[in-house]
Amino acid sequence: MTETSTPTEQIPVRVFGGPTALIEYGGLRFLTDPAFDAPGEYPRGNGHVLTKTAPAAIAAAELGPVDVVLLSHDEHPDNLDHSGRALLADVPLVLTTHGGAGRLGGTARGLAAWEAVGLPRPDGGTVTVTAAPAQHGPEGCEPVSGEVIGFVLTAPDLPTVYVSGDNASLALVQQIADRFTPVDTAVLFAGAARTALFDGALLTLDSAQAAEAATVLAARRVVPAHFDSWGHFTEGRTHLVDAFTAAGLLDRLELASA
Predict the structure, then answer these.
(1) Residue 40 and residue 19: Cα distance in Å, rounded?
(2) In 3D, which of 255, 240, 173 has the Cα closest to residue 208?
(3) C-alpha count within 13 angstroms, C-beta hemisphere, residue 256
(4) In a 10 Å sphere around its CB, with 0-12 CB exposed, 13-18 middle and 19+ buried, how is residue 42 labelled?
(5) Cβ atoms within 10 A of the Cβ of 32, count?
(6) What are the E-state strand segments in the chain?
(7) pLDDT per residue over 94-151, tens digit each?
(8) 3, 139, 173, 219: most buried by Cβ count inside 10 Å?
């Protein structure tokens, strides 16, 4: 007989800095957007540079086995850097965009928004990974920022987990909520990322939007990611705490130790 989960069941999530987090779900180990390079600069053309300001909290070699990489997109070094690309060669399955799968090859499999894949669990049963829509900038940004997806993890006996990827649209969060609410654990890429590409428009959620997303999703727990370690983030830990406090949701916020 399958044991039914309770609302208080805790899905292990460890954030290592930037967009990289390890999620243990249904006996499988999922790694989001691997970025393990040392701090440094990444020229992006036309004089644009992305600057990594802090190392990951763990080395890729210390992760242990990874079953699946959930890669929101492959085209930006703050989501997939040199070390992250090297790691993909040892991962049995990489779920990403269709374009990304074509560029990466290997074990990469492309998913379109709302497309789902069932993954066998070690002890029986299935984890379903559904690609969630994401918008990496203002409306109409895709020709410049590229294709991006998030992910929703579900299983009959486990609480739902949502990984936003680089998303700046609360309208898309509402679409995800319409299909999957309540979400137990929301791993939200925050940080209010901004660059000159869109005249400083948000490329990811700001802190107040992350708190609003938590309400929309009816999330019991919010684990922020991708709000530190890079120079183009304009809001960090203090902004998240202030925003969730103002929204009366501080008890839902789970931040890694500083």
Answers:
(1) 16
(2) 240
(3) 21
(4) middle
(5) 29
(6) 13-15, 21-25, 28-32, 40-45, 48-52, 68-70, 93-96, 108-110, 116-120, 126-133, 149-155, 158-163, 185-189, 221-225
(7) 999 999 999 999 999 999 999 999 999 998 999 999 999 998 665 655 655 568 999 9
(8) 173
Q: What is the largest CA-CA distance in the chain?
A: 60
Gyration radius of the chain over CA positions: 17
Count of Cβ atoms closer than 10 Å to residue 128 Cβ: 14
Under a CB-based contact definition with an 8 Å cutoff, are residues 235 and 190 in contact? yes
CB atoms within 10 A of CB 118: 11
Distances from the Cα of 4 to the Cα of 1, 134, 159, 164, angstroms: 9, 31, 10, 26
Average pLDDT over residues 5-17: 75
Give the single-character DSSP code of 77: T
Residues in the chain: 258
